[in-house]
Structures are given as structure tokens and as C-alpha cells.
Design brief:
seven-stranded mixed beta sheet; 14 strands; alpha/beta; about 20% strand; VC0802-like; Rossmann fold; 2 domains; five-stranded mixed beta sheet
């Protein structure tokens, strides 16, 4: 996107840019939870320093009078170690300038946290680390995985941001076939269609930055228009979403309609044992990355942790692997895995592309390739 990216930190990926870059990041980033703006950073070893430096900021640029604010505070390795006391002092500075200030939950994982912020309030993240205080405003509002299309969910849904990450990690080339044999509510197929058509993931939602006093609405409108102009009319290759649960297929189809990609997807009610590769004739241009015109199987199969362990899971994985080796030689494959023993039943050589969590469950993205026919 042309953004100037800094050194990746445990808390996230920093970048520099103007308001247009901020709008672009919120609209186009497919795997980010939220985009924070660092308003200020300073030393704060005492409450006096904290209050003095917080009061120096021109909050009128960021928060409209009467707007409610939620504070989330993290204190680590600092003399100001009590998050409640820090929140109280910051709230005391802000209260005369804005509306009601509410103290939210303490951050546990990252500076941005992973808690939703979709109640209309402005989130201010206060982070103290080694006596350095960072004040950051959330520019996103509702977490960015909330694209606005998924109202119907399956039994163990994959967040849209994680779905996009799995597609990117899989090595799938947009414009080649994509198959998800355990599609559930259709997230992977829908994200794949949006990726193939160059559709901005945030095209159907709003952002917190739209309420900032200094933001010119025309800038975001222009960025939205430019994103729409870049969209392609079709995915360019079959995208197949199948599941043995007819209710899941109905939900996936409804979600795809809301996302505007239903015409790009084929929905099939079938067990994985009946999976076949879609018929497809490659165009002469070839994929954008110059690779072979093979497709990818990208899926989030049941792994028993949330939907209940059954004695048939190992057999299900073994059957899936057999079908892939027979019907999909040379295809890329990417699987969400919560149990390496289950993934091993596929009989494929897979490596962990990355590790993360899905709904509080530790998972890895196992990727590889189905062996070609000898």
C-alpha cells in the first residue's frame, strides 16, 4: 500500500503516514485487528509527569466535545504500576474536555488488545513500559475482522482476519481455483473471493476516525472511491465452498450475498469423501505471480477442541488426505491445526507457517503441497 513500515514489535507493526494512509490502512488491511494512532510518547515515572504531559496534548483535534471515551491501561516494569490509578489520573485530565470517561479492561496480549470496541465510544489505549508512557487512539472502532457480511456463523467460526491470513500463508495465487471442503459459514471462500477481486475488506463498514474533529470526510470518501475503481468484476477462477451440513451452506450463501461475492462462489452440500477438483480452463495470461496454474485447498476442519471430540475425527482426516492425494495432485494445501496428531492423519508433508489463537484455542497454520502423480 506504499506505507512506510518500521521495525515489527511484539505489540504490532508500526508505520508512518498521513490521514490518507490511515484511511487506507483501515480500509485495506486484511489481517490487522485494529489500527492505533500514537498521539504521544513520554517519560512518566510519577503521576505529576503523567498528568502534566497528558494535559499538554491538544485533545480537541482527536475527540469531539461530548464524545464518550473508554480507557484501557497496561502497566509493566514501571514505577506507575497500578493500572487503575493511572486510568484515574488520565481520566481526570480528559473529563473536563470530553464527555464521560470510562475505564475498560486492562490489556493482556498487545498494546491494542483484542477486545471489541463497537459501542460508539472512542478508545484510548494507555501503555506504560519501563517508565515510558504511550497514548494511542483507536482509529478503527469495531475490530477490523468485522467486515459487516458475516451475520450467520457455523459451529466454530474462523475470524475473517485469520481467514485472510491463512489464505496469504497458503501460497494460493488469486485467479486460480480455491476449494474449502469444510466451509462452515463460508469465511475462507468469501475472503478468497474478495482477495481475488481486489475488494477492500473494509468496504462495507465505518471507522472511529470518521468522528475525529480534524478528519476531512472527503479524504476517506476519496480512498473508498479509489478502492472501488480497483475492484475486478470476477474472481477469475472457481471458488468452491462445500460442507456436509446443509444449514452451514445456507449460512455461507447468505454471508456471500452480503459480501457481494455470491456470484463468484459455488456452494455444495457434500461430505469430504465426495470432494472433486473443479473443472477449470486456465486463461492464457497465467497467474499474477508467474507460478503454475494450480489451485489451493484452504480449510478449517473440525479439530474437536470446541465442537466436541468424536472417535471419527482421525478417520475424517485420513479420508480427507486420501481424497486430496487422488483428486488434487500438485495443489497447495493449508489447514488450521489445533492437534498435530490429527493433521498427521492427512498423510501430507506440512510445515507450520505461523502460530496464533482462534477463539482462545492455540492453533497453527499448516501449509504444504499435495504430491503430484508419479
Amino acid at each position: 500500500m506504499g506505507l512506510s513500515v518500521g521495525v515489527v514489535e511484539p505489540a504490532g507493526v508500526p508505520f508512518e503516514g498521513d490521514l490518507r494512509a490511515l484511511c487506507l490502512a483501515n480500509l485495506q488491511l486484511r489481517t490487522a485487528t485494529r489500527v492505533l494512532v500514537r498521539v504521544d510518547e513520554f517519560r512518566a515515572a510519577t503521576f505529576h509527569e503523567l498528568e502534566k504531559r497528558t494535559a499538554r496534548i491538544d485533545w480537541g483535534r482527536w475527540i469531539a466535545p461530548g464524545r464518550e471515551v473508554t480507557l484501557r491501561v497496561t502497566c509493566r516494569k514501571s514505577r506507575l504500576y497500578h493500572s487503575g490509578a493511572v486510568a484515574e489520573r488520565v481520566a481526570g485530565v480528559l473529563a473536563p474536555l470530553v464527555g464521560r470517561v470510562e475505564v475498560g479492561g486492562a490489556e493482556t496480549a498487545t498494546a491494542g488488545g483484542d477486545e471489541p470496541n463497537d459501542d460508539g465510544r472512542q478508545l484510548l489505549v494507555v501503555r506504560l513500559l519501563n517508565d515510558r508512557c504511550t497514548l494511542s487512539l483507536d482509529s478503527s472502532g469495531a475490530l477490523l475482522h468485522q467486515r459487516g457480511y458475516r451475520l450467520a456463523s457455523g459451529k466454530a467460526p474462523l475470524r475473517e482476519t485469520l481467514g485472510a491470513a491463512l489464505l496469504l500463508a497458503s501460497g494460493w495465487a488469486p485467479g486460480t481455483p480455491l476449494v474449502d471442503p469444510f466451509c462452515g459459514s463460508g469465511t475462507l471462500a468469501i475472503e478468497g473471493a474478495m482477495l481475488a477481486r481486489r475488494m477492500a475488506p473494509g468496504r462495507g463498514r465505518g471507522f472511529a476516525l470518521e468522528h475525529w474533529p480534524d478528519v476531512e470526510p472527503a479524504i476517506l470518501a476519496r480512498v473508498r472511491d479509489e478502492a472501488r475503481e480497483r475492484e475486478l468484476p470476477s474472481a477469475g477462477a472457481p471458488i468452491v465452498a462445500s460442507d456436509r451440513d446443509a444449514g452451514a451452506i445456507d449460512a455461507a450463501r447468505a454471508n456471500a450475498e452480503r459480501a457481494g461475492v455470491a456470484s463468484d462462489l459455488t456452494f455444495v452440500v457434500r461430505a469430504v469423501s465426495h470432494l472433486v477438483a473443479p473443472e477449470w480452463r486456465a486463461s492464457s495470461e497465467g497467474p499474477a505471480d508467474g507460478g503454475e496454474r494450480r489451485g489451493a485447498i484452504v480449510t478449517n476442519p473440525p479439530y474437536g477442541v470446541r465442537v466436541g471430540v468424536t472417535g471419527e475425527l482421525r478417520n475424517l482426516y485420513a479420508r480427507t488426505g486420501a481424497v486430496l492425494r487422488t483428486a488434487f495432485p500438485g495443489w497447495r494445501v493449508a489447514v488450521v491445526s489445533a492437534d498435530r496428531r490429527l493433521t498427521g492423519q492427512l498423510g501430507l508433508e506440512l510445515r507450520d507457517a505461523l502460530k496464533t489463537s482462534n477463539g482462545g484455542i492455540a492453533v497453527s497454520f499448516a501449509v504444504g503441497e499435495v504430491p503430484g502423480l508419479s
